[in-house]
Queue: 2 jobs
Job 1
Amino acid sequence: MKALLIFAVLLVGCDGDTSTTTGGSRGRSPTQAVEPDTRPAFVLNPSKPFVIEFGRGSGRGGLDIVKVDQTGSVQLSRIAEGQRVESTSLRLSRAEVTALVGLVNTNQLTGMGRTYSAPGVADGTQWVLWIEQSPYQKSVYCNNSFPGPITVYASGLDG
């Protein structure tokens, strides 16, 4: 969890000059700045060890984080009432883990760009997605710009 928070802070500080404005592609709007990721996409395998961490929030309020692994172990944490951290855990069934992995693969999350941002928006909401399955790693940072594939994943995760 600390690694995800540190990662989010590092990405917030990334130089926007490496971004390109694109339009017309799946999940992108004409006002969305996207930094491509040169790492190859991969297919997440539900039967091999993996970790998916998904954080949503803001620099002001902190991130609500959901961490899932291949066993179905889920760790949830959030900032509540200021700086107090609340956390809990639960377990997904094998079918739920397979469905979650299906959301990653169907929405091609490992092939997304590195960062998505809305130019000209000074404050707002950030999302951070981290997927790891050795030897592969994928990170996606969204700053006030949330492409379709990641919003579909977020909806499925919340379900």
Note: The longest strand covers residues 51-58.
Job 2
Amino acid sequence: MPYASVIPALKLPRQLTGPFDYAVPAELAGAVGRGSVVIVPWRGRKVPGLVIGVNETPAIDAKNVKPIAGLAALERAPDDLLETFAWAATHYVASPATVVQCFIPEVPKRAMPKGGGAEARAAAPAKRGKFAGSVVRYASPEAKTAATAARGAAGRAGGEG
């Protein structure tokens, strides 16, 4: 079983420099590698983390290693970006985890909707006397940009704006 060296995206004291070892589950073996953004258990909650390496043996006793909970993103960060994180931590006398936290987007607490090709979903209607609009969650920033551009084009075609 491979083990990933992960820097969690948390504000940690400088003395907790990490990385921390996590077991790579069989279903994620091909997807997790250097530069992957993963979800890992940390003190009873799940947080994003950045994989900086994959090894065949952990640095601690294997029975104490927890598994990675999942992938936060399909794309991997390039090596030069990982080197920039290391440089920034050293240059600014910060823990690597704090630097990683600055660059990794926050992972949504709820899973995004799947299936049907739906890029967004509307939330329940607002209560009377409160916010009159609706909240829309998009599956990705690209989906939001595309939807916004389409609405703008429709508005211009209809004589608005």
Note: The beta strands are 3-8, 20-23, 36-42, 45-55, 70-76, 120-122, 136-138.
